[in-house]
Design goal:
Elements lengths: L1 E5 L19 H7 L8 H16 L4 E6 L2 E5 L9 H16 L3 E5 L3 H13 L6 E3 L3 H8 L12 H9 L5 H6 L2 H7 L2 H10 L17 E11 L2 H21 L2 E12 L10 E12 L2 H15 L6 E13 L7 H5 L8 H15 L38
Parallel strand pairs: 4-5
Antiparallel strand pairs: 1-3, 1-4, 2-3, 6-9, 7-8, 7-9
Helix pairs in contact: 2-3, 8-9, 10-11
Length: 391
């Protein structure tokens, strides 16, 4: 098993944790001359695609775990070249093709490969590549790694383990499996087995279909009016529907939430969510936007500064799982006959090619609810206008 991760920018400080709001560290930004960049999802997605395409050219099986991490199956590769040598080849090839540094961890199981990757990032002497196929080296590393760094062990779970005296990955690996199953779960038992070199996570040749799709954003400025919230929710519902169609899926349930800023305790707080099951699963923006607005309007209350909203699509099915409305024919309504799918396909095709996209009228425009991105970097790889100019 082979774990690859990459980071465009990493900035660590012993007094700060990941996710700290930028305004909390303004003094450090000035003191150390730190460059700040707003989130650029278009650029991230394209660079991720380039990295994964490169990895797929180097290994027969690639499981994309997240936007910045993938697992590679290296069965039999050591008959031709050593694991560490292959890892360094991957590292150099990705850097040559994409220009991004990567860290590589190699081990018999996914959990150990994640630990190897952790060591590759933490210890500069490794050169960003760690081969953890040797059992002796596995135990030596696990003895140094805190249990909370083990893949799948979160903060709450690590607190319970530490209360039992299990503070390192090695102690977790050596804990009796029956004890872990009884006091925690079969999932943690499998984690311990993986730490001992026994693969428990099945390889997926074809990624399983998504079970839900979420689209949400924090607003660039607080919204007070219902009309502004409607524009935001309509936009999120449309974006979620686009993702739904990209996966050839249909949504059977829809959920909408709104909330104020919980990090501003001096302001009045309000948070609500609501959901509805669709009579017939749909991927049509018109249906999904209308249902989202129907959920939003009863939830809205005046007098609050809304900081975030979101739309979640659930109970996702493929086309074969869509059942026609039993009462449509009884009510004398004409069947759709694929008109909805054809209309959405035309919208998607236009939006992929045109500079002026087609959107639902209720979206109006993102001016009121757009995120603040005053430090947005150019989309060098996806937008002609952002290409660097040589004078």
């Amino acid at each position: 098993m082979f774990s690859v991760t990459y980071k465009v920018v990493t900035c660590n400080h012993r007094t700060n944790k990941m996710g700290v709001p930028v305004h909390h560290i303004k003094s450090e930004i000035r003191r150390y001359g730190i460059n700040v960049f707003s989130s650029n999802y278009t650029l991230y997605g394209d660079m991720s695609r380039r990295v994964m395409t490169t990895l797929e050219s180097l290994a027969p099986k690639v499981d994309v775990y997240s936007i910045d991490e993938a697992f590679l199956d290296l069965t039999g590769i050591d008959r031709v070249v050593s694991f560490e040598e292959f890892g360094r080849e991957v590292k150099s090839t990705v850097y040559q093709n994409v220009g991004l540094p990567v860290c590589v961890g190699i081990a018999p199981t996914r959990t150990l490969a994640k630990l190897a990757n952790f060591a590759a990032k933490k210890y500069p002497a490794t050169g960003g590549v760690v081969d953890l196929t040797d059992p002796v080296r596995q135990r030596r590393l696990m003895a140094r790694v805190p249990v909370e760094e083990v893949w799948g062990v979160g903060r709450k779970l690590s607190a319970r383990l530490q209360a039992m005296g299990i503070v390192t990955a090695l102690q977790l690996a050596d804990t009796h499996l029956a004890t872990l199953r009884k006091q925690f779960s079969v999932v943690l038992e499998r984690t311990a087995q993986e730490l001992n070199g026994m693969p428990c996570v099945a390889w997926e040749d074809v990624p399983p279909p998504k079970k839900q799709i979420m689209c949400s954003r924090s607003f660039g400025q607080p919204l007070q009016k219902l009309s502004d919230l409607e524009e935001a929710v309509a936009h999120f519902a449309t974006r979620a529907a686009v993702k739904l169609r990209a996966g050839d899926q249909y949504a059977g349930e829809l959920m909408v939430f709104i909330r104020t800023n919980p990090f501003n305790p001096s302001a009045p707080q309000y948070s609500r969510s609501a959901s509805v099951k669709l009579i017939q699963p749909s991927q049509d923006c018109r249906v999904i936007v209308q249902q989202a607005l129907n959920l939003l309007r009863p939830m809205y209350r005046e007098g609050f500064d809304y900081a975030k909203a979101g739309v979640m699509l659930c109970e996702l099915v493929e086309e074969a799982g869509v059942q026609e409305d039993l009462f449509q024919a009884a009510a004398g309504q004409a069947p759709d006959n694929g008109r909805s799918e054809r209309l959405m396909a035309v919208m998607d095709a236009i939006n992929r090619k045109a500079k002026a996209p087609v959107y639902m009228a209720r979206e109006a425009g993102p001016a009121a609810y757009a995120m603040r991105r005053g430090h947005l970097s150019p989309a060098y790889t996806t937008r002609w206008d952002d290409l660097p100019k040589v004078l």
